[in-house]
User: Fold this.
Amino acid sequence: MFMDGLSEVEEGLKQAHKHQSIFLVLNGLTAAWIIASLGDFLIGPALAIAGIQAICAFRFTRRGNIIGIRAGQLGYLMSSIILGFMGLIWMMNGIMLDAVLVLILAGLGIIRIQRMEHRDYKEWYSGGATALAHIRYTTENEVLASCPSCGSLLGIVLDKFQPSDRCPNCNEPLVPSVFKESE
Assistant:
C-alpha cells in the first residue's frame, strides 16, 4: 500500500518532468524564432539564445542535483522575458492575437518556474523515489529501512532502535546477527 502510493507519486513526477522538458525546448525555440524573424541582423543573437536554451534544456533533462533545476528555471525565465517583451510590443502595435498568444506562453513559463520549486519535485529530481520517500514518510530523526526477512519498508527512529527489535510485519529480528550470536 505504502509503495503503491509512492509509485503513483513518482510516476506523476516523471510525467511532469517530461512535460517540463518538452515545454522548455518549445519556449526556447519560439523565443529564438521570434527574435530571428525581426530581421537578418538578429539571427546571430537568436542562435545564441537557442544555444543557451538547448544547454539549459539538456542539463535539466539529466536529473541529479539542484543545478539542473536552476538551469531549467533559467531557460524558462529567459524565454518568458523575451516572449513577454515581444507580446507587449505587439500589443502596443495592435497585433493583438499574436500578442495574447506569446503573453500566455510567457506566463506559463513563469508558472513552470514556480512548479520546479515544489518540495516533492525537487526531492524526486535530485534523489529519486528514495529521497521522495524520506521527505514524505519520515520524521526528523527517522530513516527508512527495509526488513532483512520480508523486505517491508519501515520507518526507524534511530534514538529508539534496539538491536533486539523485530519487524512488525513478519516478527523476524531486524538485526538477525544479534540472535545468531546469542543462540
